[in-house]
Write a sequence for this structure.
């Protein structure tokens, strides 16, 4: 019977030869007494111990001495520091042969220095550099009429009533100039409601600042009004505060800036007794707040509570609330059409998109075709069938004077 080599068997390992290093004996290893004698007698015994020990054990007895590779790294680092200091302190000679000390330039300024010293720039690069310098240059000093926000630490306007009067006169003058230059705007139509006779008289005494002419916009007017409103918050409510906050409210309501008209409304309602608001003024302020809660935030419960608290006898507002709750687009469109006040029209316009989409959904479910004139008669003025298709996503088609809302399915013949 032949016994072959087993598949995958490993060859037998050779036994390890004994190490050539001499065995460690008590005479070769240093004891604690040897170390103590070495420290006390000046190190003579330490040299004998190191000579008698094998090389692989000598490293443990030299642990207190400096490592050779660490010493090499320390020397290389010191060389680098010396070369850097030499580079910074080296002197250069100018064209006249005079020695000139070379100054050290930090890394974050080195690129700017290279850009300034690099010759032969093109006109395009020079223009880019000029624009960059102008952008990061210090802003011009503000004029004497500019004030900061009280909420950001500016207290001059808060403690100076004369400056408050002057700033409000400037705001009125800017608003008059804006309306004169934009005669087609809605604010021009509501000019007499926003600006009173007293405001006109105060605006006439304002001196025009021709040194720093700036373009007047609605945003700039509202920004200046906000500075004045913040300055008046900590003062006692008076007639001047009433004029400022009503002016701010009426402009912001027309343009739909809720960040301005909401603080003005809350201030006027909270201080209505100190400001001695009339019934019509309270009705105006409360109506705008109710319209905001209906069409902007859709908080119907708040709108209903405010209605019964301030204007329970104004049936038109109650009908508007009901039409919004019932999704009654027809009644809501009729109320929207009857509005003659631009501020109320602007507030209701926030909910126009929702009502038009309800209008489209109802016609999608009930009609196949309808006359274009009949459909536009139901819509608010200024809105056409083309607007429903392009702006509000109505999937309708126009064919002559008819609007195809849904295609009729063809009847299959048996």
């Amino acid at each position: 019977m032949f016994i072959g080599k087993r598949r995958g068997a490993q060859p037998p390992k050779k036994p390890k030869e004994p190490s050539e290093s001499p065995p460690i004996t008590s005479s070769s290893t240093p004891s604690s007494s040897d170390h103590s004698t070495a420290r006390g007698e000046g190190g003579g015994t330490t040299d004998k111990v190191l000579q008698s020990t094998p090389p692989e054990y000598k490293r443990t007895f030299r642990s207190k001495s400096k490592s050779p590779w660490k010493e090499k790294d320390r020397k290389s680092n010191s060389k680098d520091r010396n070369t850097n200091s030499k580079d910074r302190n080296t002197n250069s000679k100018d064209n006249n042969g005079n020695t000139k000390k070379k100054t050290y330039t930090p890394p974050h300024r080195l690129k700017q220095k290279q850009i300034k010293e690099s010759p032969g720039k093109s006109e395009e690069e020079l223009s880019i550099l000029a624009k960059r310098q102008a952008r990061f240059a210090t802003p011009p000093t503000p004029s004497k009429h500019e004030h900061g926000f009280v909420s950001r630490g500016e207290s001059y306007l808060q403690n100076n009533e004369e400056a408050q009067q002057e700033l409000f006169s400037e705001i009125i003058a800017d608003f008059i100039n804006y309306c004169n230059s934009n005669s087609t705007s809605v604010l021009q139509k509501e000019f007499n409601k926003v600006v009173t006779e007293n405001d006109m008289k105060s605006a006439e005494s304002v001196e025009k600042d021709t040194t720093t002419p700036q373009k007047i916009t609605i945003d700039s007017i509202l920004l200046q009004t906000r500075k004045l409103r913040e300055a008046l918050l900590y003062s006692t409510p008076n007639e001047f505060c009433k004029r400022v906050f009503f002016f701010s409210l009426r402009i912001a309501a027309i343009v739909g800036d809720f960040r301005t008209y909401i603080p003005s409304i809350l201030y006027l309602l909270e201080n209505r007794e100190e400001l001695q608001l009339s019934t019509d003024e309270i009705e105006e302020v409360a109506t705008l707040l109710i319209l905001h809660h209906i069409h902007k935030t859709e908080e119907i419960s708040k709108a209903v509570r405010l209605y019964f608290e301030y204007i329970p006898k104004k049936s038109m507002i109650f009908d508007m609330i009901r039409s919004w709750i019932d999704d009654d687009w027809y009644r809501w469109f009729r109320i929207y059409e009857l509005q003659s006040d631009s501020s109320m029209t602007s507030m209701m316009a926030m909910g126009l998109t929702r009502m038009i989409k309800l209008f489209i959904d109802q016609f999608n479910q009930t009609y196949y075709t309808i006359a274009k004139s009949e459909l536009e008669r139901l819509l608010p003025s200024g809105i056409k069938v083309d607007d429903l298709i392009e702006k509000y996503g109505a999937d309708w088609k126009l064919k002559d004077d008819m609007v195809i809302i849904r295609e009729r399915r063809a009847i299959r013949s048996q």
